[in-house]
Amino acid sequence: MSAHPALDLDLTSPDVVADPYPRFAAARAVAPVQWHERTGMWLTFSHAAANAVLRVRTLGRLWAPRWPSEPMPSFELIHVNSLLESEPPTHTRLRRLVAGAFARGHVERLRPRIAELAGRLADDVAAAGADGSPVDLMAYYAEPLPVQVIAELLGVPESDWPLLRPWSNAIVKMYEYAVTDQQRAAAETASQEFVDYLRELVAVRRRAPADDLVSSLIAETDAEGGRLSEDELVTTCTLLLNAGHEATVNVVGNGVAALLQHPDQLAAVRADPGLVPTAVEELIRFDAPLQLFERTAVADTVIGGVTVPQGMKIAALLGAANRDPAVFAQPDRFDVARADNPHLGFGAGIHFCVGAPLARVELQASLGTLLNRFPKLALARPPVRRPEFVLRGVRSLLVTV
After folding, report:
1. Class in CATH terms, 14-400
2. Full 3-state SS string of 292-314
3. pLDDT tens-digit series, residues 315-334
4. How far apart are the C-alpha atoms of 358 and 240, rounded to whole Å?
5. pTM for the full model?
6. Mind giving me the DSSP string for 85-146?
C-alpha cells in the first residue's frame, strides 16, 4: 500500500504506550505518511501531514460500526448523531448551534466556579497528605475536576456527579485498538444508562429551564423548525462529557507529571505565575492527551506524497505532529515559556475542539491552584501510565504535598 517499508509499530505495545515519541521520530525520518498494516490505514508523522488530514475537505469523519456483527444500538446512537462524527451540512448546523450555546456566556459564568471547585479539591488533597503520606493526584484532583466542570456546564445536579466518570470511562475504551468483549458490553450498558439519564434531565429542564447548556440546547431543539433533534441534543451532551473531560484529565495528569520531572520548568512557572497560560499550551504539546484522530477519504486524496483512495482511512498522529522539529525548536524539550507553539492538541479545521475556550480556563485554573496551594509538591514515585494509546494518560500520580 506504500512505497515505503511496512511500518512496524504496535500501538498496543506497553513500550510504545510508555513513550511513543522516539518511534514517531524514527518513522518521521523515513516518510511523513506511511501505511500501517496493523490498523489498516495510513498514519502521519509530520505536523504538515497531520494538519492536512485535519483540514482537507476530501477527508471526512464517516461513522461506521466497528463490530457490525455485535449490535451496540445505544453506543451507535451517541455517535451517529455526533458533531464529531459528522460532516457538512450536518456538522455545520450542529457546530453552529453548540458554539452559539457556548457563546451565551457559559464559559465566563463558570470561570469563578471552576476556581471554587479546584480549591475544594485542593482542600481534599491537603487533607489526604497532611500526615506526609503520598496522595494520588489523579484520584483526588485531576479526575474529579473536569467531571465537575462539565457537570456544572450541563446542569447535572451535584448528587449525580459520581455517575458520569464511570459512564465516560467505559465508552471511551472503544476508541482504542485492542477491545475485549467485556469492554464492548460495558460500553453499551454505559451508553444506554447515560442516554436514559440525559433524556430525563432534558425532561426536567423543559419543565424548569436553568442557566445551563442543556437548557440552551433545549431552546434550539424546541425552536421553530426543530434546529436540533433530541437525539442530537443527547449526543452533544455525551460528547461534551467524554471528549471534554477525558482530554482535560489527561492534560492535567501528563502535564503535572512532566512538570514534576522537570524541576527547572516547575521552578520557572512558580517564579512567574504569568507563565501559566503558555505552560498549559506546552503541557498539551509535549505529551498530547489525544494521540490519534482518524478520517476517511470521500475522494482520492494526496497527503504527504501518498494517495489515500476513496473509502480508505488516514489518521493524524497528533503526538507526532507536536514533536516535529520542522515546526518546534528542540521539540523534545519541555519548555513552559515556549511562545511559538502551534500544537494540534485541540485539532484543526472544522473539527477544532468546540470546547477549547472552556478547556483553557479549566486547565489554567487547575494548574494555578496546584502551584499556589502546594509549594512543596513533589513526586512520591514514578507516574503509572494508563495502558491505552489513543487517549494517553496517567493512571496514578502519587505525590507528597
Report:
1. mainly alpha
2. EEEEEECCCEEECCEEECCCCEE
3. 999 999 999 999 999 999 99
4. 11
5. 0.91
6. T--TTHHHHHHHHHHHHHHTTHHHHHHHHHHHHHHHHHHHHHHHTTTS--EEHIIIIITHHH
